[in-house]
């Protein structure tokens, strides 16, 4: 059992060392997280603009269809 524990600990250490943020200090990690969050926000805003510009998809009406699908699947799933 101790051999398995040592092996698991070595694998864990290797995974932690492979993490992209493990090479810097806490301040550098927090800066990188903030940069990634800002990048994510920009991408999210652009996606929202594109979705709004696209408008509703033509020929798709989910109102009754969704309800019928839900009713049909309810008996199968539950």
Automatic annotation (TrEMBL):
The keyword Ribonucleoprotein does not apply. It is found in: Nucleus. Keywords: Activator, Nucleus, Transcription, Transcription regulation. It holds the Pfam family Med21. GO terms for cellular component: mediator complex. Its main location: nucleus. Component of the Mediator complex. Component of the Mediator complex, a coactivator involved in the regulated transcription of nearly all RNA polymerase II-dependent genes. Mediator functions as a bridge to convey information from gene-specific regulatory proteins to the basal RNA polymerase II transcription machinery. Mediator is recruited to promoters by direct interactions with regulatory proteins and serves as a scaffold for the assembly of a functional preinitiation complex with RNA polymerase II and the general transcription factors. This is Mediator of RNA polymerase II transcription subunit 21.
